[in-house]
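Can anyone check this?
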Amino acid sequence: MSLRSGTQKAKKFGTPTEPTSTGPKAPSPRATGGTPTATTPQTVTKPTGTRGVTPQQPAGIAVQEKFKQQLQNNPIVKAATQTLRNLTQTQKSYKHQRFTTDAEKAFLQSQIDAENQKITNEENKLIEIELASNVNQIISALESGKQLYPDWFQNNIVQVKTGQITSKEFLDSYYYLSNQGIIHAPIIEEVFEEPIIELPEAIAEPEIDISITDNMIIQRLDSFSIINGRAIGQITFTATDSFNPYYYNKNITNIISFKTPNGANILPFVKQNTLRFTATERTEKIQYDEGMNENTRAIVESFVWSGVTQPTPFSKQLKFEIVTAQEGQPAPVPTVQTSGFMGAGVAGAIAGLILIGFIADHKRGK
C-alpha cells in the first residue's frame, strides 16, 4: 500500500498537503549591477482552513480507518504490495542501466499495473461488501414498515436483490428519494384527548297517555223518525270530563247503520261521519237524512270509534227503533234499545258489519 502513487493515496484516504508559501528572493547581483542589498522576507499568513473541503465527521473517519485495516489485512493485497515493492526497486535500477531496452521497461510497467489492479479489485470488493451491508439494513427497514416508500420503488428492491443493479445504484436512488421526503419514517400524529364533559342526566319525558274508554263521549238522541220514506234525525255527541285531552283536534269516527226489524241492512253502505273536539268546543251535532227504500220501520245503530280500521269505542253504542210518522200526527219518539244483536259490544258490532260487507265500501257525509 505504501508504494502506491501519492495521488491515489490522497484520493482514497486523505487530503493533499498544501504547498508551502515562501517570501520573494533577493535580486541577483548581475541584475542590479552591484552588491545586493539585504531585504527582509515578507511573512505570508496561511489560511486557517482548506477552501472547498468539507471537514470529515468522526463517523466517517472511523469508517475509513476500518476500511484501511481490512484492506491491509487482505492476503491478496499483502502479496500484491510486496510484489509492487520488488517491481519498484527493479524499475529504479533500470534508470541507472544504460542497456535496458524499452520492451523490458514496458513489460515491467505492465507488471506494476497488474499488481495495482489486483489491489483496486480488492478495494472494490470490500466497498461492495460494505455497500451491500447498508443495502440489507435499508431493505429490512423498508420491508418491516419502519420506513414508507412508493409502490414503484419495490422494483429497485427486487433488482438489487437479483443483481440487476449494483448496491451503489440502489443507494443513490434511495438517498435521493429520502432527501426529497418521498421515502420517510411513518408519520405519527399526536392524539389529543378531548376532556370528558359530563352532561346532566336527561330528564325523562313523561309518557303520553293515549288510552281510550267508552265513557269519554256521550251520545244523545235528539230526534229521529221516518218522514216521506227518509230517515231524518239528529244526534248530539258530547265530550265528558273523562275525555282524554290527547284526542283534542284529532278525528274521531261516527258510524251509523239502518236495518230492518229482521236485521237486514237497508243501506248498501256504512254511513261514516267525522267528529272533532277541542278544549273549548266539546259538543258536536250530526244531522242524518237517508232513504229507507220503502221501509216504514228501522233499527238504527250508532257507534263512536277511533276509526273504521281501529274500532276502539269512545262511547257506548246507541241503538234505537224509528217508525214512519203518520200524516198529520207528530213524529213518534224513537224507542231506545240496550240489548239485541249489538248487545255483544264492539266485537259483536264489528263482526256484524263485516258479515254484511259494509266495512269495505263506506261513504262519508254529515
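Reply from J.R.: I decoded it. Residues 102-143 form the longest helix (42 residues).
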